[in-house]
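Hey, can you fold this?
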Amino acid sequence: MKKETRTVVYDDELRIEAYRFEGIMQPFPSHFHEYYVIGFVERGERVLSCRDKECIIEEGSIVLFNPGDSHACVQSDGGTFDYRGFNISKEVMLDLAEEVTGKQELPGFSENAIYDEEAACHLRSLHEMVMKGTGELGKEETLLFLLSYLIQNYGQPFENCIPECRQEIEKACEYMEEHFTERIYLDRICRHVGLSKSTLLRAFTKEKGVTPYRYLETIRINEAKKLLSEGIPPVEAAIRTGFLDQSHFTNYFNQFIGLAPGSYREIFSEKDWDGGQYGE
């Protein structure tokens, strides 16, 4: 069986993360990100669940996730999965979108899985340049060509991609975002928003695509990523983001991100390293 390899590079010039996963079998549970994800499937077949829809992604598929899109995927062909992709923060995307559209407006992707040879060509070319640290002018140019093409063909205003949520659910989200470093119990959230436990669980899961607990853990993981990128040790990042212990933190981080916290931290290290490749 092909050895599992996970390679991650942060491009300081473009301010984006580039991932390449090879030989992956790990399923990813339902979760969301605060950033955009643009990815390309090189090999393997998975069932992708996103926005209450389910589809098959396979060789040649491009995946597009907006910030907040709850999604999950699992291998469906008994083999392994090869994938390359980019993570782009909302702040960077806002700047890039203004460059290609002339508007200070976040784009929203209307589809989560597409087949498009032209977009795939731009994506592969850009990914190779970022991974090799080459490209100079061509690297930024290719990124703008890719986003211009995707926004033109699959874009809409970002707010149109976010389903309207009940006021109580938004209030619950705000509560968890403000108190994620603390131990939060379901009854505390229910008292805050004025709903029973059963009503909150049903309504929240329907609106957000994840349970309140999964939402809370995702907030913690996203905050931990920021701390790790600043050089904070994993043990301290776990404590500062409200995880019960280091093991709990490491397991969740690996489930959501596909890397151990220490491996993720290393891609932002100032040391001279070998490109951020980790074989397991």
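Oh, and this one too while you're at it.
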Amino acid sequence: MDENNIFHCRCRKCGFEEDVEKHSSVNAVSEPAARLGILDGSLMRWTCPSCGDTVYLEYPLLYHDPRLRFMIWLLPSGEYAPEIREYGKKLAVLLPDYKCRKVDNILRLAEKIQIFEQGASDVAVELSELVFRQESGLSGNIFCHGLRFEDGTCREFRISVVKPGGEHEYYSVSPNIYTDCSAIVERNPDMQPGPGFVTVDYKWIASKLN
């Protein structure tokens, strides 16, 4: 393997070490298997051959869907890549109709892919998740687990809540939440992300409501 495409894994439990293939970029059109690997979590999931402990690998990855015209840059928490800002500025000029986002983990990447593939607004989804958080009283990491549209109308909206131990709880919520939140976003220009790779998450949407 090319050294630039190698990620060195060290098991957090038993200390076993192994080099695995790293995917620094994924093109949704030319690499459909890698796209599916992101959505089902397998692309960046590593299981230690020695003890069986499983973790999600953390390294930068650029996801590009040229057909639906969006890019998502996965940059793990704590990492800084100044080139992202400059690349985002160039894209805003060259490809102004592209959606560009930045996320900090594989679950957020999969969430954004599902949202944009449905033609939905991730801002409206984040606002919907905030409403769900407030009405349910649940805390922790909340993700959109799935959306389904018919004739441009949201018909199904599922949410995943990641508990402290890592287990997931799934909830089906009224699709009207998304419909109402989408209308709010459309009426408020300040809730539209700016150019470049923007992080549209819980903190971002909360800042727009203050």
